[in-house]
Specification:
The complex is a heterodimer of chains A (320) and B (662). Helix content of chain A is 35%, strand content 18%. Chain A has helices at 8-14, 23-46, 57-90, 111-138, 260-273, 275-280, and strands spanning 159-167, 170-175, 181-183, 187-189, 193-200, 205-209, 214-218, 224-229, 234-240, 252-258. Chain A has a 5-stranded mixed sheet with strand order 3-2-1-5-8. In chain A, helix 2 (23-46) runs antiparallel to helix 3. The N and C termini of chain A lie far apart (102 Å). Chain B starts with a helix and ends in an 8-residue tail after the last helix. Chain B has 662 residues and is an all-alpha fold. Chain B is globular. The longest helix of chain B has 32 residues, at 291-322. Chain B has helices at 2-10, 38-60, 73-91, 95-101, 125-153, 164-184, 187-198, 207-226, 241-246, 250-278, 291-322, 336-353, 356-370, 377-390, 408-418, 420-434, 443-466, 468-474, 478-508, 514-540, 555-585, 651-654; strands at residues 618-619, 635-636. The chains are: A alpha+beta (320), B mainly alpha (662). Chains A and B meet through helix 3, helix 4, strand 7 and strand 9 of A and helix 6, helix 9, helix 14, helix 15 and helix 16 of B.
Chain lengths: 320, 662
């Protein structure tokens, strides 16, 4: 090994007129190899575990979308990081024999590079837009809240409506097809298309059924509809994801996806069990106007003196 | 040497035609403590507050008590508004218009060299810039302390340091303070200080408006802090409406505070936009304007055009609380969506108010430390204007899951993704400038490179958020929290510190300690990433924002993030120590052009004279002629010869023969 005998400092001194290496091609090479390795690794090792899982059609499609986006993002991240890393190593001023940069018009811009950059980013962005829109439309809104008049609806003819009522600081669920009974726990059948009708009695909440991949804001006096189709049995975490005041952090509960038969059994049993309570509730409606005299005990209109003269919005007056 | 000699023969002192900056002191001047300064402002604020509070109780006692709080919203609003007015009267911000109204001829501004000028209302943009430096740092450190409190609470999923009320007040205060700070953090200090020097002007277009913007900014700081004395407010910085209507006295501080800060933002933006358009020196054509000035122009346009929406929205909120209107009360015919739309119509341009100046700083610093011209100057300027324009068309992506018209969502997905094209230009510009450069790793350059690293992560995760299906999972969780900390803190705040380390030697005439600067940088960079990167995972795993309780299985990630956050917080102590040490305790005088920059602002002597330029310079070229053996002079400073660019003969600037400006 004769190379070992050569002083490295001397070496750079001896060859001052070395041909400039093709920096961009080197970077592209590194980038290509890394991307070709990391992207499939991500897809096969990480992809299947990405939240929100595969419990519903919305969750499946949202996981798929996340993975597609990540596989586009990863090469972009790698490209910039490799370029930055290469630059700070190869073009640092402290490097022996670092050449003075050449200014002038050539360093001020490169038409091909600029046009190429703009075209590439535009193509990626428009591609993402088309992809996102197709996914949104074909998956009946992908589990997001579509407002009172949803335009992308599921193809299934048997849709189970479940009403989600947010209030400070809990969610309750009403099942209009079972006499409008009210439950503190979210129970839904498997293999069923469900329409969540989300509304609020006071401030804005956001109904986030994590494993179902449903997120819809609960607005007062608005019915916000979100669809999904359940695919697997399991338990569901429900959290409020819009700041709603003091106990926002404690506004969570758990639900479950059960088989169709056990759901019907549960619903019928609960309907019978809570029949007396259901009578006291206001008739099922998509929105409710909270009783301004709510402090008197009712959360719903009792049709008795809803706004007394002494009433101030949100106050807790004694009823005269 | 010939240049220096030539200049000697022609310069006449003092300048025969000092520009009248316009007086603002209608009252006869009194020396020392009897004149107007920070102390009289404080007295004015207290008196104004007491008067307003009393008045509010007089006009509205008995029927406008805010629910559940036992406080009178009219009294609080009156107190805060008159307090701000008293503050402005006390500092002297209103002397000029009042004197004019009274038919008096206000005295012109005068040059002061006393340190007390930093405690006064002054029309010198360099003093205002330094006042802003201290102001935004105070703002930033206050918000940072609150962040430390948040991370302390989140150390454990179930045992608590704070009660839920205190915690939500801290979170809201942190967010609001940081947003208020971030919208002025570059425009205020660096924009006001640098823009006139960069465009060859002796002053900004409206020096009194510029000083007014600073003093009302400080008033806004006091107003938002006052929320803590009313028990805080529970809405976070977004102030969503039914919760806002329900909240107690602290909400008034939020609404009045944003209104007050908003007026300051409009004033600052308006002044700088007019300055840049009208006060450019001869020869400073649009293709020669430094890229930082382009970024400030785009930002100023946003400040001037977007902020009025916020002020109007805040006014509606104040009316809901005080005059019993129902703008945001849906059961009385209002709409909670109204606040969301108004707020985000301001709020999204606001996000770019907080991004564009950072782009300007990094693009301005890169050529200096790479010794290369800026790559794609026109692309960079066009990108900034493109971002500014598009930012008005993306706001509803904050409402993707809120129940807006569903067919709006693809449209806003498109506009949101489109805005990543001009935003991405900053990477084209940065990477192109680095190509075959000669990179000097000074502290400002390290911060600049960190901006590219951090903002890339922030930008790419933004594309995830813009995709409506993926948004279902990440909306309202820690993922989005991490995303905007990567863009605002990782982008803007890193760029701000790059700018501080870069320009402080010019602004203060003192050299910042490099060793402490390096410690600050590495601590901040490493622990910023260790703090916020885990939050992407925390968010994906299902933790919503602004919660004080979370799932047990997320404790390890949260603790890791908290520990890193504490070190991140400590890194700012290193900066504070460096700042105090290098500027006050052991100052080392800085050379006029320590980084060998070609920028016009560096061709002035240090400290910069009161009128910036003895003669209005004639700009000859753009400031990016790096990498050319002997770069052409950037401007004719009109002192008998061309001042050669500093890089080729720094001695001609350093050995300026004139007497010190003081």
């Amino acid at each position: 090994m004769t190379n070992a005998e050569v002083d490295p400092g001397e070496q750079s001194f001896v060859v001052p007129e070395a041909k400039e290496p093709r920096h961009l091609w080197r970077m592209v090479g590194i980038w290509f190899v890394l991307s070709a390795v990391l992207v499939p690794l991500y897809y096969f090792l990480v992809g299947p575990h990405v939240p929100p899982g595969t419990m519903t059609s919305a969750a499946e499609s949202n996981q798929f979308d996340f993975n597609i986006l990540f596989m586009i993002a990863l090469p972009v991240l790698l490209a910039v990081w490799i370029y930055l890393g290469y630059s700070v190593v190869v073009w640092r001023a402290s490097r022996p024999g670092a050449a003075d940069p050449v200014g002038g018009p050539k360093a001020r811009g490169h038409l091909g590079m600029q046009v190429g950059w703009i075209v590439t980013t535009t193509v990626i962005v428009l591609g993402l837009f088309v992809f996102g829109t197709v996914e949104l439309v074909t998956n009946a809104g992908s589990g997001g809240g579509q407002g009172p008049n949803p335009i992308w609806t599921p193809t299934s003819h048997t849709i189970l409506p479940v009403q989600v009522i947010g209030q400070q600081w809990k969610f309750t669920y009403r099942y209009p097809t079972f006499g409008g009974f009210e439950s503190q726990q979210l129970v839904v059948p498997n293999d069923t298309t469900i329409a969540f009708h989300v509304t609020s009695l006071d401030v804005i909440h956001s109904f986030w059924a994590y494993q179902l991949s449903i997120k819809a804001d609960a607005n007062p006096q608005q019915d916000n509809v979100a669809f999904t189709t359940t695919k697997e049995l399991g338990s569901v975490t429900v959290r409020c994801s819009e700041l709603c005041g003091l106990w926002h952090g404690a506004m969570f509960n758990y639900g479950k996806v059960v088989s169709k038969a056990s759901f019907v059994a549960w619903a019928k049993a609960t309907e019978a069990l809570t029949a007396a309570n259901t009578k006291l509730l206001p008739p099922f409606a998509y929105t409710y106007v909270p009783d301004a005299n709510g402090a008197d005990g009712g959360y719903y209109p009792d049709n008795i003196d809803p706004y007394s003269n002494a009433e101030v919005y949100g106050a807790t007056p004694g009823k005269s | 040497m010939t240049l220096t000699t030539e200049r000697d023969t022609e310069v006449v002192y003092p300048d025969p035609t000092p520009p009248v900056l316009g007086g603002f002191q209608g009252l006869p001047s009194r020396p020392g403590w009897f004149s107007q300064h920070l102390g009289t402002a404080a007295v004015g604020a207290v008196l104004g507050y007491l008067l307003g509070h009393w008045l509010g109780n007089v006009v509205a006692s008995g029927y406008t008590n805010v629910a559940n709080s036992g406080v009178n919203a009219v009294a609080i609003t009156g107190g805060l508004l008159l307090g701000v007015l008293g503050w402005l009267l006390g500092i002297g911000a209103l002397n000029y218009p009042l004197a004019k109204m009274a038919g008096l001829e206000p005295r012109p501004d005068y040059e002061s060299t006393s340190w007390t000028r930093y405690l006064r209302y002054t029309a010198d943009h360099k003093v205002v810039g330094l006042q802003y430096v201290i102001g935004v740092l105070a703002f930033f450190f206050t918000g940072g302390l609150l962040a430390m409190a948040i991370r302390t609470e989140l150390l454990s999923p179930s045992s608590h340091v704070f009660g839920p009320g205190t915690y939500i007040a801290i979170v809201s205060e942190h967010g609001t303070i940081m947003m208020m700070m971030a919208s002025s953090v570059v425009v205020g200090p660096l924009g006001n200080w640098l823009v006139p020097l960069m465009i060859g002007s002796r002053r900004t277009a409206f020096p009194r408006v510029e000083a007014f913007s600073f003093w009302i900014f400080t008033a806004g700081y006091l107003v938002i802090l006052s929320a803590l004395f009313y028990g805080g407010f529970p809405t976070g910085w977004t102030g969503y409406a039914p919760l806002q209507t329900q909240a107690g006295g602290g909400m008034m501080s939020y609404l009045v505070g944003f209104g007050v800060i908003g007026v300051g933002m409009m004033a600052a933006g308006f002044n700088l936009a007019v300055t840049i358009i009208n006060y450019r020196a001869p020869g400073m054509t649009w293709s020669r304007v430094p890229i930082f000035v382009w970024s400030i122009l785009a930002t100023s346009a946003l400040l001037t055009l977007a902020t009025p929406t916020l002020v109007a929205a805040g006014l509606f909120g104040i009316l809901d609380h005080t005059a019993q209107t129902a703008f945001y009360v849906s059961e009385h015919g209002g709409s909670s969506f109204l606040w969301q739309n108004l707020f985000w119509f301001f709020g999204h341009p606001e996000v770019y108010i907080m991004a564009l100046p950072g782009f300007g700083i990094v693009a301005e610093i890169l050529p200096v430390f790479t010794r290369k011209p800026l790559f794609g100057y026109k692309v960079a300027a066009a990108g900034m204007l493109g971002v500014a324009l598009l930012s008005f068309f993306v706001w509803q992506h904050h409402l993707f899951q809120s129940g807006i018209n569903p067919d709006m969502r693809p449209l806003f997905m498109l506009t949101t993704e489109l805005i990543s094209i001009p935003t991405g230009f900053i990477f084209l510009v940065g990477l192109g400038t680095l190509y075959r450069a000669k990179i000097r790793f000074e502290v400002p350059m390290l911060f600049t490179l960190a901006v590219f690293f951090n903002f890339l992560i922030g930008g790419v995760t933004g594309v995830f958020l813009s995709d409506v299906p993926v948004n279902v999972t990440v909306h309202g969780g820690f993922f989005v929290l991490s995303h905007f900390h990567y863009t605002i803190m990782g982008g803007l705040i890193f760029a701000f510190f790059a700018g501080l380390y870069f320009w402080l030697p010019k602004m203060t005439g003192k050299t910042m300690n490099k060793k402490l600067g390096l410690i600050h940088f590495w601590l901040m960079f490493i622990f910023f990433n260790l703090t916020f990167f885990p939050m992407f995972l925390i968010g994906l795993l299902g933790q919503p924002r602004r919660v004080f309780e979370y799932a047990q299985n997320l404790q390890a990630l949260n603790d890791f993030s908290s520990m890193s956050a504490f070190v991140l917080g400590a890194s700012f102590l290193v900066f504070a120590a460096n700042f105090v040490w290098s500027i006050f305790i052991k100052p080392v005088p800085a050379p006029a052009n320590p980084w060998d920059s070609l920028g016009l602002e560096w061709q002035t002597p240090t400290p910069v004279p009161y009128y910036n330029f003895e003669r209005i310079p004639v700009v000859l070229t753009d400031p990016y002629h790096y990498g050319e053996g002997s770069p052409p002079a950037v401007a004719d400073l009109g002192q008998g010869g061309l001042v050669a660019a500093a890089a080729s003969s720094p001695a001609s600037v350093a050995e300026d023969p004139r007497p010190p400006a003081q």
